[in-house]
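Is this the right way to post structure tokens for a design question? Let me know if I should format differently. Anyway, here goes:
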């Protein structure tokens, strides 16, 4: 089927009601005034063609699911076997028919006239049509579309075809050399085919799409018109994706060190160098806090900092182990972990390794950078904001990259650490679980979820003038920084529409990468035909696209309009669970979840869930949690662990136990041996504290030595404050 005119119009200015749509008016077509063409901007040009799905080439996904889906089988309640249908042909009646390749069509053929609107034409742009009863992806705006579905019935193919050819019978006498009038779509059909907004909210103004055949001077900064995209239809026969894909040349992927124990794996990340740095900076910060309180005359004997004593590496590791244990044993309050009341909720093991007061003191004094070394004048705004946590970020990035060699498929996405307090670097992402917090750009292994490199979103650079190159913009620069050092090895980068663009895809392709992901069609260099192809112009199941040789752009009409970009997939389709879809979509659904997989595994053990007033200490807990997950992935993928491997929970419990066994000095709960003392009843009796002398006579009360309750009694023989009952009898009972 070939469109004989534009499939929709966009009005310049305010929105006007369609002629003849009012109640009681005629719905017959009327003559088109010549001024109509000056009032409207046509969306589709005449080189846009459509074709049926049977003419599209078939292919198979290159990626395999990481985990096979499990399905329950329904068994009939009756014991009798269910007879199978025998209406179809048997195996002996089936004939093997060779698939006919689709014909290639030149895109510059003459547009058909109104009289030949029903005559099909060979395709130059492929469109895939699916059955209406095939399940599709869930809708993002279910409530809005559910209401519209209840008001209007679903349009069938006959209704849409009749609407597209609306009014062609009265104009069939026009000459073939004359251009046909624009197609008027009834208002009811326009409401059914109304486009929906993009799912993601843009955080910056995107450049408008331009015709790729006419490149401006700013767009051709690279030699030989590097960004001059010549969009054409897909070749016939199609080129295999395996031929177009970059060859992966990395050997020995996985861990770079032999691993035999969870503790040793964890210590490869948190080595003596970084632990010594944390110990040194924590002790310095505690002394600075005490000195500042002494200068302000706010230091008193009851101050918590007055009980400070310098920490060491063993104590900091025990502190790490207790934090990790809080992620395994989840409680609502911090003090509940040190409960020793003997109830079923008690956890006395925490108090045997560290007291509550010491843990709170380490929480307050934990530090990573010397405040005296901070010079605001010599730091950029981004560096100044990340100064307190910068040594830990730099160390983790270095160790994460040194301990693991990535597989071919890489997922680049953002992650969000929830922070509800005021923070200048806070970001709001509504489709994330945290919604608001500290955003990090992360490069993860798609297969395992291993975090290889990350960058914190700390500051947006103020750009007074336009960047010197397209790739100097903030988003492409982030991608290039995260992929630095991986060039010319055949890696495939999977990204969403926040990062992807034809310019970035071509640049990465020239550096030995492959790029696959979703795309925003208002990006620069996207073909105008796809930019202006709205959701209303496509039926569910149709696809359309172009290729420039190294970059492929497709638009697929599922429940919403989905645009994809790839450097090797082409326009082939496949059947996944009974539904036909492009192979680029099938592979994207498998390989894009690397960052989400990491976040899901971390959410089971919420180490950073505990509230704190300092944002960088919560971010440090996130890095500590990620380091344990990376240690588990290294341990799991190590060839030395083929006989016995721990699951994630047992790995964490064994790691915590090993740290405490090696570095903790358990506090003895048994009383020290005392010399035998003869109890003399006549010398041990209760007495009352004398009243306080002052303006008002008030009895003196002190804490009981056993239950800490305020009481006015004490033992005359022991000189200890003790309650009358039941503490006094228990104090003198052997």
């Amino acid at each position: 089927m070939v469109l004989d005119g534009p499939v929709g119009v966009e009005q310049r200015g305010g929105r006007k009601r369609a002629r003849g749509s009012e109640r009681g008016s005629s719905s017959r077509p009327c003559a088109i005034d010549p001024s109509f063409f000056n009032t409207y901007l046509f969306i589709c040009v005449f080189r846009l063609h459509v074709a049926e799905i049977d003419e599209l080439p078939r292919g198979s996904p290159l990626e395999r699911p990481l985990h096979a889906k499990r399905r329950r089988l329904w068994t009939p309640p009756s014991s009798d076997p269910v007879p199978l249908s025998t209406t179809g042909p048997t195996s002996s009646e089936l004939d093997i028919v060779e698939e006919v390749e689709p014909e290639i069509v030149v895109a510059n053929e003459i547009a058909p006239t109104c009289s030949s609107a029903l005559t099909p034409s060979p395709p130059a742009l492929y469109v895939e049509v699916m059955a209406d009863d095939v399940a599709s992806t869930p809708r993002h705006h279910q409530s809005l579309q559910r209401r519209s579905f209840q008001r209007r019935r679903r349009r069938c193919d006959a209704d849409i075809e009749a609407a597209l050819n609306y009014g062609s019978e009265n104009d069939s006498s026009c000459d073939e050399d004359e251009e046909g009038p624009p197609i008027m779509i009834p208002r009811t059909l326009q409401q059914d085919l109304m486009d929906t907004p993009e799912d993601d909210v843009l955080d910056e103004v995107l450049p408008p799409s331009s015709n790729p055949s006419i490149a401006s001077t700013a767009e051709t900064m690279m030699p030989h018109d590097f960004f001059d995209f010549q969009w054409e239809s897909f070749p016939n026969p199609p080129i295999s994706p395996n031929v177009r894909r970059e060859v992966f040349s990395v050997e020995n992927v996985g861990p770079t060190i032999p691993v035999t124990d969870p503790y040793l794996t964890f210590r490869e990340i948190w080595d003596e160098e970084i632990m010594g740095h944390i110990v040194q900076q924590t002790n310095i910060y505690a002394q600075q806090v005490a000195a500042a309180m002494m200068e302000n005359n706010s230091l008193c004997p009851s101050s918590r900092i007055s009980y400070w004593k310098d920490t060491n590496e063993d104590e900091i590791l025990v502190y790490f182990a207790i934090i990790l244990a809080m992620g395994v044993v989840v409680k609502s309050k911090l003090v509940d972990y040190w409960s020793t009341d003997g109830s079923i909720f008690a956890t006395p093991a925490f108090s045997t390794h560290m007291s509550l007061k010491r843990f709170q003191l380490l929480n307050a004094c934990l530090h990573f950078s010397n405040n005296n070394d901070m010079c605001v004048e010599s730091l950029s705004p981004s560096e100044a904001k990340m100064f307190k946590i910068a040594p830990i970020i730099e160390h983790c990035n270095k160790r994460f990259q040194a301990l693991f060699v990535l597989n071919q498929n890489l997922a680049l996405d953002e992650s969000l650490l929830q922070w509800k307090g005021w923070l200048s670097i806070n970001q709001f992402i509504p489709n994330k679980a945290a919604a608001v917090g500290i955003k990090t750009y992360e490069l993860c292994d798609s297969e395992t979820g291993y975090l290889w490199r990350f960058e914190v979103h700390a500051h947006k650079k103020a750009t007074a003038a336009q960047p010197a190159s397209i790739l100097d913009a903030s988003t492409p620069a982030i991608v290039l920084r995260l992929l630095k050092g991986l060039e010319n090895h055949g890696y495939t980068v999977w990204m969403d529409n926040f990062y992807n663009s034809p310019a970035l895809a071509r640049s990465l392709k020239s550096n030995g990468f492959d790029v696959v992901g979703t795309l925003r069609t208002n990006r620069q260099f996207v073909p105008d035909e796809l930019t202006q192809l709205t959701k209303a112009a496509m039926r569910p199941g149709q696809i359309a696209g172009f290729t420039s040789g190294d970059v492929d752009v497709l638009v697929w009409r599922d429940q919403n309009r989905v645009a994809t970009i790839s450097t090797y997939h082409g326009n082939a389709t496949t059947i996944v669970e009974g539904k036909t879809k492009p192979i680029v979509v099938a592979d994207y659904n498998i390989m894009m979840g690397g960052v989400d997989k990491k976040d899901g595994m971390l959410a089971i053990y919420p180490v950073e869930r505990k509230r704190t007033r300092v944002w960088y200490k919560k971010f440090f807990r996130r890095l500590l949690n990620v380091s344990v997950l990376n240690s588990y992935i290294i341990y799991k993928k190590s060839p030395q662990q083929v006989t016995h491997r721990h699951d994630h929970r047992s790995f964490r419990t064994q790691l915590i136990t090993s740290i405490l066994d090696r570095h903790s000095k358990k506090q003895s709960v048994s009383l020290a041996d005392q010399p035998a003392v003869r109890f003399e009843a006549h010398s041990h009796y209760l007495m009352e504290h004398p009243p306080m002398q002052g303006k008002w006579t008030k009895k003196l009360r002190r804490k009981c030595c056993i239950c800490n309750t305020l009481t006015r009694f004490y033992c005359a023989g022991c000189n200890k404050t003790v309650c009358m009952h039941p503490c006094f009898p228990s104090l003198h009972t052997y």
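Format looks fine. Someone answered above. Worth noting: The first helix runs from residue 36 to 39. The chain has a mean pLDDT of 74.
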